[in-house]
Amino acid sequence: MSHTKDQAGKKRSRSRKGAPGILDVALRAQVSSATVSRYFNNPDIVRPPTRARIEKAARELGYIRDRVAGAMHGMMSGSVGLIVPTVDHAIFAELIEAFSARLHQHDRTMLIASHNYELDRETGIVRSLLERRIDAIALVGRDHPEAALEMLRVRGIPVVMLWNAVGVEGIPSIGTDNRKSAMEVTQHLLNLQHRKIALLFPDTQFNDRARDRLSGVMESLLSAGIVVPDKWNQPCPYDTDRAKAVAMSLLQGDPPTAFICGNDIIAHGVIHAASRLGIRIPDELSVVGIGDFRGSSAIEPPLTTIRLPAIRIGQLAAETLIDKTHLKNVATLPDVQLPSELILRESTAIARR
Fold first, then answer.
1. Phi, psi of 202 (to 5 degrees)
2. pLDDT at residue number 13
3. Whole-structure pTM value
4. Do 111 and 81 contact (CB within 8 A), yes or no?
5. Phi and psi angles of residue 37, each rounded to the nearest 5 degrees, phi first
6. Cα–Cα distances in Å, from 16 out to 59, 170, 193, 246?
């Protein structure tokens, strides 16, 4: 029984295992297997008509690229890691969404992990991502276990650090000046004549963003001749319920006239505490946050805060790692400082006592 050339090609289009491979795509597209490989690893060097034939053949065959096998042979896996402190905060959700979307535009996949502000877990997370042959990785902040950074360094994995304007030597950072942002929101309260100011910040030992913000707040207050008493400088995790409880205790007796909060999550808790106690914001109490999380404009009253460019940070991080993955010279890039913005809403007013 005779077959046409096209029928013969279709007959040979499947491997013995049933799943089409590069050779099957090459036969269908009438090109060499090397050309198919070049297309999937660096499509820009393949002529457009040839690219179109390969794309059509792969689509018709249902070909799925085996990135893991490619990575085992020194090629790119197409996976980029992102480790964040938590996936529970809206601002990190914005970062994740922007990072993933930009990777997807370039046919890359995001592998995400969270250490829940427990940096000692990060070494294990990095090891796990390396076992999955990531091509590059983005980390939040500049505080990281040395063992984790060393594993990435010896393997030549491109790394960027996010959320700070300045990173560490040899690793570029994309973010804002957290210290300057905190100074700006503090100055806003000082301009409103507040002098009795309470601070609610998380433990800063392993959180460089919070440490920079608290440093900026303290510097601004000291410059204005204000010393915050210990009772008004309380540690508070990024948790609304806990912030509410701490704020309710501070609003008894001789309360402060304003709260500066380490981020909007804590600020939301303070607003809930004031509402529970019948304290009017901003008439009797002013509250500021940092971050401009989703919901900060909808809470009552809407929160005065610092808007951080989470979406742009995520986009730039993905673009940087995509551009530098092949060359692996990301360490030569300069730090990128993005602007933050003071957002004035209805949670602040002139101090009345």
1. -75, 175
2. 38
3. 0.78
4. yes
5. -60, -45
6. 19, 48, 79, 66
